[in-house]
């Protein structure tokens, strides 16, 4: 049902009121789904922590299945909510200045359990403490997490490199991995909604197929671009750009949004 609603919003040419109405329905449906999901996630976590007595191995396996499925559904709902907001033009970026290295270090520690267990390394190149960016920090962090999480998910050995290259009016960033790569015939599905590569090597890896759709839209909203190069069996590099903004640009932007009535500032 959610898939159909999203298709309704994105694929068909609809009036603004219709998009608004569909997006509202989607928001309501998503919120309604989150309430029972919180119970599923909360209670399965409690049981896994042996809060009500020790669970045996089979019970633990099933509880893990329940918890993972719940997490997957939550990711799906959050992505769908964000995508529907973007389509309805209601997704507002709160741009501010932040330190890139600090954010990257936070991300590296969040994903440490995922890459540490595989013996991978995450290396930063061209990044130092002096780099500050102006973007929506929450959304930018989401973009980085998604790209780095994918690099880890689809890599079994080697390194993941996060590289920053300063250009005249923008930054170019690379997320490079030594993973399974993407075959020529699969390259078209990568940024598509619910687009996932299907082959035996990765059928056990879970995902929503919505992460890169959202990443692309968020980068575009920031005025950047994203693309990738990949060699099957060797690895993949995602490239994206972010315009360099100054604080002056930001205050002009805020004034512009205020005039358009898009946002209120204290
Ligand atoms: P998912 O949640 O399935 O990872 P994404 O939208 O993030 O969804 O990615 C879409 C598809 O692109 C993935 O299912 C995977 O097949 C492919 N993909 C993304 N990143 C990589 C990568 N670093 N290496 C190989 N394949 C990738």
Can you put this structure into words, describing what you see?
The protein has 266 residues and is α+β, with helices and mostly antiparallel strands. It folds into 2 domains: 10-87, Helix Hairpins (Orthogonal Bundle); 96-248, Heat Shock Protein 90. Helices cover 50% and strands 16% of the residues. A 5-stranded mixed β-sheet has the order 2-4-5-7-6. A two-stranded antiparallel sheet has the order 1-3. Adenosine-5'-diphosphate binds at residues 150-151, 154, 177, 179-180, 182, 190, 195-197, 207-213, 236.
Describe what is shown at a glance.
This protein is an alpha+beta fold. About 50% of the residues lie in helices and about 15% in strands. The protein folds into 2 domains: about 10-85, Helix Hairpins, CATH 1.10.287; about 95-250, Heat Shock Protein 90 (2-Layer Sandwich), CATH 3.30.565.
């Amino acid at each position: 049902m959610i898939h159909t609603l999203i298709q309704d919003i994105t694929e068909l040419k609809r009036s603004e009121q219709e998009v608004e109405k569909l997006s509202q329905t989607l928001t309501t449906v998503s919120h309604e789904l989150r309430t029972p999901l919180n119970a599923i996630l909360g209670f399965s976590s409690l049981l896994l922590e042996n809060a009500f007595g020790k669970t045996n191995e089979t019970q633990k396996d099933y509880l893990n299945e329940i918890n993972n499925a719940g997490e997957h559904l939550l990711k799906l709902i959050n992505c769908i909510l964000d995508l529907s907001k973007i389509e309805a033009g209601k997704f507002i970026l709160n741009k501010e200045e932040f330190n890139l290295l600090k954010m990257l270090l936070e991300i590296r520690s969040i994903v440490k359990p995922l890459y540490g267990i595989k013996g991978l390394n995450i290396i930063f190149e061209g990044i130092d403490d002096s780099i500050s960016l102006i973007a929506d920090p929450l959304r930018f962090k989401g973009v980085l997490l998604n790209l780095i999480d994918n690099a880890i998910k689809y890599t079994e050995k080697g390194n993941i490199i996060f590289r920053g290259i300063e250009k005249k009016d923008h930054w170019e960033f690379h997320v490079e991995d030594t993973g399974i790569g993407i075959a020529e015939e699969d390259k078209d599905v990568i940024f598509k909604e619910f687009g996932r590569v299907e082959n035996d090597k990765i059928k056990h890896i879970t995902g929503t197929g919505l992460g890169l759709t959202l990443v692309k839209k968020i980068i575009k909203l920031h005025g950047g671009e994203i693309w990738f190069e990949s060699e099957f069996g060797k690895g993949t590099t995602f490239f994206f750009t972010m315009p360099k903004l100054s604080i002056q640009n930001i205050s002009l932007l805020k004034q512009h949004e205020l005039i358009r009535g898009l946002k209120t500032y204290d």
